[in-house]
Amino acid sequence: MKTEDSTRATGERIPAETTVTGQKRLERIREAAFNIRSNALIQAEVQGQGYIGQALDIADVLAVLYADQLALRPDDPEWEGRDRCLLSIGHYALALYAALAEAKVLPAEELDTYASDDSRLPMSAMASYTPGVEISGGSLGHGLTIANGIAMGLKRRDNPAFVYNILSDGELNEGSTWEAAAVAGHHQLDNLIAIVDFNDQQADGKSSGVLGMEPVDQKFETFGWIARRVDGHDLPALLTALEELRAEEAGKPRCLVVDTKLGKGVEFLENREKLHFMRVAPDEWAKAHQQLKESYEA
């Protein structure tokens, strides 16, 4: 996370290398990814079920963003100079809440209230409930449109902040997503970075089987975007791609397609047949935490 202590108070971005470099920097991000996964499991255990696979698959992306790339003030989530990270896929909330706790926007002890009565942490992320949540993203296919509007507004106010929009491969089946992609390309929204989580899974089955959208990166390029594609669990590749996309000087929006694996880090969850919404038996949670720890220490 880029806090005002190590980066900016006015919107000017300072490269992370000035504070933490090389292996130490990557290890900090790797630890954040582990913490996000661990806290996602802790939250899901409260209900015994949830969108656990998605939370585990997007943890590395969120770790790079919230532990390194985003300009934030944890004690002031509404700071005008902040980078906006929009979770279009609201059902990934387990991971976002864990990332916000890792960034100290939310108190870690609040994660135990996930999806409970009167909690600020509903099952699908909502901006009206939770500090640090930029949009209510439960209705899929709208996130990129909202991101466009925010990016346009920032540019009109000469605010140098960036807008990051995390969306899913299933959302690419929505026509509104491609309408938004066309608008972003037309208006040359070079302060917008879309991150497509390609885990090849949606509610009705394999995304590639429901409606194939490949090659995703080339489609975005056709709409006037700069696009890259990386392994969504390769931290050095993620970090390099996001930094290079942000530094691009061409007046175009940017897209990063990340190939991920549902349940990443917990082997028996990775191999579950039904991955979209998981129920985990009471005696399986300890096993999940143990496998996650083993994968982190390997």
UniProtKB/TrEMBL annotation:
The keyword tRNA-binding does not apply. Residues 35-292 form the Transketolase N-terminal domain. Pfam families: Transketolase_N. It comes from Prauserella salsuginis. Its cofactor is thiamine diphosphate. Keywords: Thiamine pyrophosphate. Signal peptide: none annotated. It comes from the Bacteria. Belongs to the transketolase family. The keyword Plastid does not apply. SUPFAM superfamilies: Thiamin diphosphate-binding fold (THDP-binding) (SSF52518). This is Transketolase.
